Amino acid sequence: METQQGSTNESKQKHGKMKVLLVSLSCILMAVGQIAGPLLCRMYFLHGGKRKWLTSWLLTAGFPVMILPISIFYMSSKAKTDQHLFITRWLFWACAILGILLGFNSYLYSFGISYLPVSVSSLLSSTQLAFTAVFAFVVVKHKFTHFSINAVILMTFGSILLGFHMNGDRPKGEPNGEYVLGFFMTIGGAAVHGFLMAALEYTQKNSAISFTFDIFMQFQLLVSIFATLFCSVAMIINKDFQAIPEEAREFGLGEIKYYTILVLAAIANQFSIIGSIGVIFSSNSLLAGLVTSLLVPVLQLFSVVFLREGFSGEKGMALAMSVWAFASYLYGEHQASQNKKLALGGEEVNNDSV
C-alpha cells in the first residue's frame, strides 16, 4: 500500500512539474508575441502600410509553425495509443466559431493600432482583464470577489481617463474622427478577447476528452486556420493580396524591410496565440488575462524606446490603475486559492477522524 501511495505521489509531482513547465513556456511565448507583435504592426502603419485586413491576417497566418511540433508528437505517440487526433464534430464546430471570432477580434485590434499609439492601444487592450472576469463569471461560473470588482472598476476608470486625453495623444495629421473610432474599436477588441478567453476555457471543460499538450496544439492550429480563412476572404474582397507588391515598393523603410516586418509580425502574433491558449488549457482564462495585463508596462517601455512615443501624465495614471488592478486581482485569486486549500484540508482532517 505504501509503495502504491508513493508511486501515486511521484506521479502527481511529475504532473505538477510538467504543468509548471507548460505554464512557464506559454507565458514566455505570450510575452514575446504580445510585445513584438504590436510594435511590428504599428511600425507597418507608421511607415506607409494601410491594409488593416492584412495586419489582421498576420495575427493568425503564422499557424504553419505548429505543423512541425504536431507532427513530432503524432509520430512519437503513434505506437502508444490509437487516438492521435482530437477531432469530433462538436470540437470542429467549436473551433470554427472560435476561429471566426478570433479573426473578427484581429480586425478590431488592427483597426485600433492603425490609428492609436502602442502606448494607448496597449492600455486600452488591458481592459480585457475586466471583460475576461465578467465573461468568466457568466460562461464558466468563476465567482466574483471584491478584489475582482475592484480590478474591473480600476480598468474602466483607466480607459475613461485615456478617453478624456484623446487630443493630446492623437498623431499629427490624423483626423479626430479616425482616432476616436480607433479608440472604441480597441475597446471592442478587448471585449471580444475577454469573451474568447472564457469561451476557450468553456470548450476545454465541455469537450468530453482529455486535453493533453499535443491535443492542445491541434486545437490551436484549427482555430488559427479558421481565423486565417476568415481574414483571407476579407482580403480577397478588399483586393489586399494584389496591393501587397505595390505597397512594398512604396514602403518607407524599403521593400525588404516591408516583407521582413510582415513575416516577423506573423510569427510573433502566433507565439502570442499559442501562449494564450497554452495558459488557458494548463491553468485558466483568468491567468491568461492577468499575464496580458502584466505585460502592459513592459510594452509601454518598449513603445517609448523604439517608437519614440510620448508618455503623458494621463498615461502614467492609467498605467498605475492597470498595475493596481492586476495586483488586486492577483491577491484576490491568491486568497481564494488559500481558502480552498484550507477547506480541503479541513475535509481531510474530518475524514481521518471518522
From TrEMBL:
Keyword Transport listed: yes
Keywords linked to the UniProt accession: Membrane, Transmembrane, Transmembrane helix, Transport
SUPFAM superfamilies: Multidrug resistance efflux transporter EmrE
Membrane topology qualifier: Multi-pass membrane protein
Keyword hit for Isomerase: no
Localisation: Membrane
Major location category of this protein: membrane
Cellular component, GO annotation: membrane
Superkingdom: Eukaryota
Gene Ontology molecular function terms on file: purine nucleobase transmembrane transporter activity; purine nucleoside transmembrane transporter activity
Membrane-spanning ranges: 20-45, 57-75, 87-109, 115-140, 147-167, 179-200, 221-238, 258-281, 286-307
Protein family per UniProt: Belongs to the purine permeases (TC 2.A.7.14) family.
Protein name in the entry: Probable purine permease
Native species: Turnera subulata
